[in-house]
Amino acid sequence: MITYRPLWKTMADKKFTTYTLRVKHHISHATVQRLQKDMPVSTHTPDKLCTLLDCRLEDVAKHMPDEKP
User: I want to staple 16 with a disulfide (CB 3.0 to 4.6 A). Which of 11, 22, 29, 54 is the partner?
Assistant: First the structure.
């Protein structure tokens, strides 16, 4: 599973808000909600976030192994 928890820390460190992403950088509300819920997004989204935040992919997303039953 991919989690976007690192994104929220990176955004806070760089004084970005979800409002900034949506209004200033034209990332849709639906995409922001998908990120908040750790749902799949296109690879274009993390790429754009890394560019906007001037950071590495590790600062936006992290792979977490699925739990075994």
Answer: 11
Q: Is the pTM of this model over 0.70?
A: yes
Cα four-point dihedral sign 50, 51, 52, 53: positive
Three-class SS of 2-40: EECHHHHHHHHHCCCCHHHHHHHCCCCHHHHHHHHCCCC
Residue 21, pLDDT > 70, answer: yes
- Spacing of C-alpha 17 from chain mean position: 11
Pairwise CA distance, residues 64 & 20, whole Å: 27
In whole angstroms, give the CA distance from residue 64 to residue 24. Answer: 31
